[in-house]
Design goal:
The structure holds 2 protein chains of 2 kinds.
Chain A (H helix, E strand, L loop, with lengths): L1 E12 L2 E13 L5 E5 L5 H9 L6 E6 L3 E6 L10 H12 L3 H12 L14 H13 L5 E5 L7 H14 L4 E5 L3 H7 L2 E6 L2 E5 L2 H13 L2
Chain B lengths: L2 H20 L8 H21 L9 H22 L2 H4 L11 H30 L8 H28 L1 H11 L2 H4 L11 H7 L3 H11 L12 H21 L1 H6 L1
The chains are: A alpha/beta, B mainly alpha.
Pfam families (chain A): ABC_tran
GO molecular function, one term (chain A): ATP hydrolysis activity
Protein name (chain A): Polysialic acid transport ATP-binding protein KpsT
């Protein structure tokens, strides 16, 4: 379960203050995967980072029950000067999982070949995304936070992602941000629309997508 | 899962990461952390042996400079490495498990170990090869080291926050910090400075660090003006201020 209690967060950059969420209260229960919808720049990625706890609220609180992943995105949480393998080792250590097992799993999954031992700064964005996806699939979480990452790699790799992701989804839930409403519809049961600092929950993902589409048209 | 065990695991992982990447790009790796200060002391010893007749204390130029330099390094290497602890690990802070303080703790532990190792190697070699036997007074040595490290930690924690918030402050700090090496008594004894100026020099807590450290190596050194109470006071006050600023700014440290 993840519960927002009067959560408020402003994004501040160079003196511009923009609300991401304002006084939002919402409960997301276990057993349902959530699609997060909102226009470009509404703060969906920031919201995922808030849920993960990678950044802090300005006021209010978020109560988390269960193990929540870091936000999985293109931007990457990798240290560029370390190799892919070193980054995997680091994550294994901080989450207390078996290091060698995780290294072997990711090596096999991400298909980086010799680049696995090269610094992440030399990777293409596709390689980074493959590493990020493989890495998070190697650690067990109750919630996976996914930021636009399911559409990486070639058809073969996508198939592999989908297969492993679907096994994960038997015991875990996903909170997903994607511009592809098709992906969201495929993976998610319910939806949350983020619009002007408000979070609105829809029990049916179809309803959420309809509202989101209406919001986008009414620009 | 308790918070403390997470912190310990994260600090352990960061330690390995710092060891692997700090000198990772150079051949020789971590050895440079030891070689660099050793080479520096050797060079300074040679220069000063050429221009001065006798060191201000004892008979060995090498011991005189090494004691000053290493005591100073416990502060200087600490701050220069820790100032950027949070910034350098920015990407890793996107793992919610990793807290900004963990990056500071990991670098602190690594730097204390590194400088201690340097001290053992350099001072050990000098003391072992000297003709005169040296009586080491360990409490004075350890006290000086502890205060230098804590003071450095406090300064670095303040800097970690202020560098992020006020880039201008970083410039100012670097300008002020640079001549510190010259006025902290690495090359001279504050005891030898005439009265009104000596009081000015003694404001600098690092002068007391170096005097205290040297007292451990030179039993005959009187260290006029050494005030350990003052040093303790400054070190703990700075550390407290650092912890306060760091805690109050955890949002900024995470968001940046």
């Amino acid at each position: 379960m993840i519960r927002f209690e009067q959560a408020t967060k402003y994004a501040r950059t160079k003196g511009i203050k923009k609300p991401i969420i304002e006084d939002a209260s919402l409960t997301l229960n276990r057993g349902k995967s959530v699609g997060l919808l909102g226009r470009n720049g509404a703060g969906k990625s920031t919201l995922l980072r808030l849920i993960a706890g990678a950044i802090k609220l300005d006021s209010g609180r978020i109560i988390r029950r269960g193990k929540i992943s870091w936000p999985l995105g293109f931007a990457g949480s990798f240290q560029g000067s370390m190799s892919g393998e070193q980054n995997v080792r680091f994550v294994a250590r901080i989450y207390g999982v078996d290091t060698e097992e995780l290294i072997a799993f990711v090596e096999d999954f991400a298909e980086l070949g010799p680049f696995y031992k090269a610094p992440v700064s030399t990777y293409s964005s596709g390689m980074k995304a493959r590493l990020a996806f493989g890495l998070s699939m190697g650690v067990n979480f109750d919630y996976y936070l996914v930021d636009e990452i399911t559409a990486v790699g070639d058809a073969n790799f996508k198939k592999k992602c989908r297969a492993v992701f679907e096994t994960k989804l038997k015991d875990s839930d996903v909170i997903m941000v994607s511009h592809s409403t098709k992906t969201i519809r495929d993976y998610c049961d319910c939806g949350v629309v983020l619009e002007k600092g408000r979070l609105i929950y829809y029990d049916d993902i179809g309803d959420a997508i309809r509202v989101h589409d209406k919001n986008m048209k009414g620009l | 899962m308790s918070h403390l065990s997470t912190h310990i695991r994260v600090v352990g992982a960061l330690l390995v990461r710092e060891m692997a990447t700090r000198f990772g790009s150079k051949p020789g790796g971590y050895v440079w952390a030891l070689l660099d200060p050793a080479a520096h002391i050797l060079l300074m010893t040679m220069i000063f042996r050429a221009i001065a007749r006798a060191p201000a204390l004892g008979t060995s130029f090498a011991l005189f400079f090494a004691t000053g330099y290493i005591a100073f390094q416990f502060y200087q290497a600490m701050t220069s490495y820790l100032n950027s602890a949070v910034r350098a690990n920015k990407a890793l802070l996107s793992y919610p498990n990793v807290a900004p303080i963990d990056t500071i703790v990991a670098r602190f532990v690594l730097q204390v170990c590194t400088t201690t190792l340097v001290a053992f190697i350099v001072l050990g070699t000098i003391v072992a090869t000297m003709r005169v036997d040296t009586d080491l007074h360990w409490p004075a040595i350890l006290e000086a080291i502890a205060m230098a490290c804590l003071f450095g930690l406090g300064v670095a924690m303040i800097n970690a926050v202020l560098f992020l918030k006020y880039p201008l402050y970083e410039q100012v700090f670097n300008i002020v910090n640079r001549p510190l090496f010259l006025i902290s008594g690495v090359f001279f004894l504050p005891d030898a400075i005439p009265a009104p100026y000596r009081d000015l020099v003694l404001i600098n807590p690092l002068v007391h660090v170096i005097m205290g450290f040297r007292k451990g190596f030179y039993p005959e050194y009187r260290a006029v003006g050494l005030d350990m109470t003052y040093l303790y006071g400054i070190a703990f006050l700075t550390l407290f201020a650092g912890m306060l600023v760091f805690t109050l700014s955890r949002k900024t440290l995470r968001n940046e």
